[in-house]
């Protein structure tokens, strides 16, 4: 979704091999993208839901990432 613009805080998601993506506050909620994504993915109403969506977008069986606020 190229019309999503991050507006504030960022949380970087780290897996066993390093960074896998990031969650960003945005107008209307939160958005995320994986490192391989060209654009942000949708708007989610809460931070927890955006983190869950990021995790669901990872390969099946991936562990829950560690989210670090930046």
From TrEMBL:
<keyword id="KW-0808">Transferase</keyword>
<protein>
    <submittedName>
        <fullName>Methyltransferase</fullName>
    </submittedName>
</protein>
<keyword id="KW-0489">Methyltransferase</keyword>
<dbReference type="GO" id="GO:0008168">
    <property type="term" value="F:methyltransferase activity"/>
</dbReference>
<dbReference type="GO" id="GO:0032259">
    <property type="term" value="P:methylation"/>
</dbReference>
